[in-house]
Amino acid sequence: MSTPTPPTPINHTAEMVIGTIFGVMYGLKNDDYLTGIFVGVVAGVVLSVLHTWIAVRRRKRGDES
Q: Which chain regions cross the lipid bilayer (predicted)?
């Protein structure tokens, strides 16, 4: 009896970069850098959660693209 191989970990670098850019753009546009940091972190977390949710759905369906 062998154990199944664990799934490959999900890389969230792209989501964090997009969130950081979004937060910097918001902070520079509105001259509110603290809110820009918050917006960037929230955007990165939301994008990462969405990416994880989509990846898990694909794995359950057997769609590895």
A: 33-56
